[in-house]
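Hello again, I could really use a second opinion on something today. I've dropped the whole record in just underneath, so have a look.
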Amino acid sequence: MPCLIALFALISPRLALFFVLLFSNWIDRAFDGWVVPVLGFFLLPWTTLAYVVMYSVGTREVLGFEWFIVGLAFLVDLGSYFGGKRARD
């Protein structure tokens, strides 16, 4: 499953999140409710995907280096927003 997620993530993180939702229960295990995953899907897809993967492949919590990966994904999300704005100007 992680290789398939990585393949879909190269195309689109939202597509990868959609397939993770359909074919596994990783999102249910990583988050308690539905509000945070829905907001993450629309606002911070790379961060949400990284958190779900780090939670599921690790010790069922995000610790240490896994937070570094989630932080990098957050920077990628921010870069896509600010880089898009800079390209429009």
